[in-house]
Amino acid sequence: MSAVPAPYRVVERWEETRDTVTLRLVPTDAPLPRFTPGQFAMVYAFGVGEIPVSVSVIAESGDGLAHTIRAVGAVSAALCGKQVGDIVGLRGPFGTSWEVEKALGQDLVVVAGGIGLAPLRPLIRHAVADPGGYGRTNVLIGARTPSDLICRTETGEWATAYTGVTVDHPETSWRGEIGLVTRLLDGARFDPAHTTAFVCGPEPMIRATGRDLVHRGVAPERIRVSLERNMRCATGHCGHCQLGPVLLCRDGPVLGYDRAAPLMAVREL
Questions:
Q1: E strands, 46-204, where?
Q2: Number of H helices, E strands in the chain
Q3: Given 103, 122, 168, 172, which is the most exposed site by the fewest CB atoms within 10 A?
Q4: pLDDT by residue (tens digit) across 180-224?
Q5: CA Rg value for the chain
Q6: Which ranges constitute the DSSP H helices of the chain?
Q7: From CA 252, how far away is CA 243, in angstroms rounded?
């Protein structure tokens, strides 16, 4: 794994929301590295900087990777502005994965908040493509408003036991659920004693979902959560992503809830 960004060409671009795009990238002069669901790359906008972005599509045929990016700062805005044919830099893969292979035979509960659905997308695609390998797959999606929902077309195509969507602030045309994503657990179909859960989104949502799943009987070590901190080097040297004893770029971003819960309970001074 090189510390120097490798050049990747944007071969496809689609808008998810007013401020979020997905870029499909292919390397220009090197083999495609092997990513697993949950891992991330450092994506570089030349002349601006780089940011960590989880992989949101892993093409089995070697057709590249896709990264879903929300414009919230200078680097992410520059990346969102890239068009087909443009070149970006990429380092990776980095970090831990969802380890979905350890959930074979289990019911799955996938809980996403906002853009947190993007890192979960490869896991969901894997599970629905192999219905014989897993029990019932449940996908629970929350967003601030209907306009903030990503993967809207794809969501309706997932063959799951249950897919629920809720928003905090509905628009006049919204006819779906309203409220916290945890309320969707009442509609999910799973056996808590034989369930693995995967959670990604804002930290308050992760804490609330983890507590609710444990209350319903899912073992904390069977709940996998993805945490976010300011990652700069992605190699565990700079310390910017430290959370207690954990360096999230190296030891995360995906951790068991049994390990993550006490770390999230600590407030920074």
A1: 49-58, 65-70, 87-94, 107-113, 137-143, 162-167, 177-178, 195-200
A2: 6, 15
A3: 172
A4: 999 999 999 999 999 999 999 999 999 999 999 999 999 999 999
A5: 18
A6: 74-80, 117-129, 152-155, 203-215, 248-251, 257-264
A7: 10
Helices 257-264 and 203-215, interaxial angle, to 10°?
130
Q: How much of the chain exceeds pLDDT 70, in percent?
A: 95
78-105 residue pLDDT tens: 999 999 999 999 999 999 999 999 999 9
Structure tokens at 189: 């179909």
| Strand partners for 101 | none
Give pLDDT, residue 134.
Answer: 95
Chain centroid to CA 200: 6
Q: How far is residue 63's CA from residue 86's CA, in Å, rounded to a whole number?
A: 17
